[in-house]
């Protein structure tokens, strides 16, 4: 005798048939059995498909997948499209498999990609290389659903054979190819899409998004910790909702405690998007685009759904995955899994002298960080000089930035200058430094730079804040990217070190997240790798000093 189905009543949000009606959903053995309309009934709660983050790096939550899941399900997340690009740059294919193995310990439906650009460019040192053969092997894994963001868009446009071979491998298997081409418009965007690229999450202007939609691409509207493009792109939800999905890309644990895609949906509704379009961008569109085994609240589907109250507040009350209740009223029902450690960290302690910059004639080429963006500006400033060296000058918000190679301990330190971080004292250092994850540090003097870097090295990875007579570290022993603690504790520790960074003077909303992107060469314009300054717009190295015109 079969077990009686479970059931719930409420307003059924059917994003497939595009209707909302009072009804009853029944499920058994992990699948929806039937949905019955109950005309005339009034309900205050809504039942809808669960949320799917269409592009996220789990590593940026500073948590392994199983611990990320414990926080995410509270917000109605039932699945992710996850790019393990970060750990792959440190540990290669073994890092991807590490993430897959940990994800298997959670019911949340992680869908991983095969990283396409490890390393992202040949202008930096990473811990691994994934060639076309290695990528093809990863694509053959059932847990790998797509080719991760193709960041080397100049390589695509130039017809780089190795890169095109990776795209071809995904196409042979019928797996979509994710894009990453900030600022690419017009004919170049069309050529990029024609190579087989199907999405982009890097649009920061509406005009750019329109060009990519015209080329046949889907736009992933991103709102993370450092990159926040929702406001700029939200008009698409009224004009081109069928071409949109929602993603976070990178979300630190303090924000993950408070929100995930539930916030995207709230903002979409507040911006004027229809209820069905907003929820489709958070569920239907990524499920269909990536071919995910995630339910859409249809008979026969996996019972992956949420119960929420209030369209303005959109408070998620319950989350179900395969019919099991995984979160209720702000509390996760998922048990903690003890993480497995894996790392590659060869860096040795550094001296203040390693960060000295001998003075040269002319102006400095300076990175200008922009709050809420991954892009930077390239500006020129007169150096401040002391004892024959160019030094930081906090009074002008001219700080030193350096990248220390974590894989080759004898490699020289690359040093540059940056503005926008606003530190008045001390230094911030991080082993989360997209994409190769060397150690990046910004600070007001060479002693503070060395102290912050050495704190990270001593723990073989972490976020460090040094200054005002104190030193803090959030250790990240899993690949130098993720912590091994309980999610809420990690979030609390991150909140503390974030506050310490702001107490040193930083006005940035997320100083450590912004810092982590200052070595990301594939995002224009000026960045710093372990080999020196690089312009993503010119795709060329840049000298530190430039002679005055």
What does this structure look like?
The protein is an alpha+beta fold. It folds into two domains: 47-332, TIM Barrel (Alpha-Beta Barrel), CATH 3.20.20.140; 352-546, no CATH class. It is 26% helix and 28% strand. It contains 17 helices and 31 strands. The strands form six sheets. Strands 18, 19, 22, 23, 24, 25, 26, 27 and 31 form a nine-stranded mixed β-sheet that branches. The chain has an eight-stranded mixed β-sheet with strand order 3-2-1-4-13-14-15-16, with no helix packed on it. Strands 5-6-7-8-9 form a five-stranded parallel β-sheet, sandwiched between helices. Helix 2 (85-91) crosses helix 3 (93-103). The longest helix is centred in the last third of the chain and has 17 residues, at 487-503. The radius of gyration is 24 Å and the shape is globular. The mean pLDDT is 96.
What is the CATH superfamily label of the largest domain?
Answer: Metal-dependent hydrolases
Going by helix content, strand content and strand pairing, the class is alpha+beta
- The pLDDT mean sits at 96
Low-confidence stretches at least 5 residues in length (pLDDT < 50)? none
Rounded radius of gyration (Å): 24 Å
Strand content: 25-35%
Question: N- to C-terminal separation?
Answer: 87 Å
CATH class of the largest domain: Alpha Beta
Compute the number of helices. Answer: 17
Instruction: Specify the CATH architecture of the largest domain.
Output: Alpha-Beta Barrel
Tell me the overall shape: globular
Oligomer: single chain
**CATH third-level topology of the largest domain:** TIM Barrel
Q: Please indicate the count of domains.
A: 2
- Which bin fits the share of residues in helices? 25-40%
Instruction: Note the main sheet.
Output: 9 strands, mixed
